[in-house]
Structure formats: structure tokens, C-alpha cells
Amino acid sequence: MSEKEHKVSRRQFLNYTLTGVGGFMAAGITLPLVRFALDPALKTGADTEMVAVTQVSQLSSEPKRFDFKIDQVDAWYESEVSRSAWIYQEDGQIVALSPVCTHLGCTVDWDTNEEFKNRFFCPCHYGAFEKDGKNVDRTPPTQPLFVYDLEVRDGTVYLGRPRPQV
């Protein structure tokens, strides 16, 4: 094939070659950066595991606070995080509530306010919740306390992550 039949000049050839090489170099730099940024977000959290908290024999109809620790993986950082739960047993059913107020995230306590007897009370803004975690009318919280995923195996209560009540 002669040079006259092939209609690509030297300038066009260099332009095409340098554009291709530049594109490969840009992709070689960009793709690892994108993977580096997105990889932690695509991994499933270690927070989904169930953790042994207490024995069923320690539960009563009065809510008791139980503290426990979970191993948390946040991107590349692994840590041990302290959590708490209010757990009680009523009519053969075990309920585990998160102690975090749904108004502004303060910690609720059981039966500590004279005005709200036998209820969960948040001292930050006078929020109140019924024993089952439902918010009391005319108090700041607009939704119930979160409920932990719960399993009972061999007389031991295991908790997962807290979820909103439906």
C-alpha cells in the first residue's frame, strides 16, 4: 500500500498516538483512585453480627439496662464500640430498646422522673416514651425508640443492630 492511498498524515498519526497514550495514562491513574474511594463503601458492615448480651434468667418485667461491646469496622479502621440496651420480658416476649432518644440523640433512662412514672425519660428536652418505646404525646420526640434485632439461643439473648419501630 502506497503512502498516497493511505490518507493519514504524520501530524494526524502523532495526534492519534498521543491521544491514545494519554487516555491510557489517565485511565491508569483514575481507576485505582476510584476503586480506593469506593471500596470501603461497597463492603458490608461488621455491625450486622449478633452479640451475646445477657441471660434470659436475668430479665424481668422491669426494663434493665445492659451494656455490651461490638467490634466495628469503619472503612480501614477497626474499633470496639460500647453500646447499651434496655431489655425486659413481658408475657413471654423479650423486648430490647435502644437508649438513644429519637429527638436529639440524648440517652434515656427508665423511671427517673416523678412526672413520667414507669416510662423512659430523656432529661435533655423532657422527652418521654412508654415502656414499649412508643413516644408520649406532647413531648419533643416524634418517633418511638429504636428496637434491637433480637435472638434467643440456649438461654442467651443476642442483639443485632437497632431499627426503627414500625
Automatic annotation (TrEMBL):
One of its GO terms (molecular function) is oxidoreductase activity, acting on paired donors, with incorporation or reduction of molecular oxygen. PROSITE patterns: RIESKE, TAT. Pfam families: Rieske. Component of the menaquinol:cytochrome c reductase complex. The Rieske protein is a high potential 2Fe-2S protein. The chain crosses the membrane at residues 12-34. This is Menaquinol:cytochrome c reductase iron-sulfur subunit. InterPro entries: Rieske_2Fe-2S, Rieske_2Fe-2S_sf, Rieske_Fe-S_prot, TAT_signal. Keywords: 2Fe-2S, Disulfide bond, Electron transport, Iron, Iron-sulfur, Membrane, Metal-binding, Oxidoreductase, Transmembrane, Transmembrane helix, Transport. The lineage of its organism: Bacteria, Bacillati, Bacillota, Bacilli, Bacillales. Belongs to the Rieske iron-sulfur protein family.
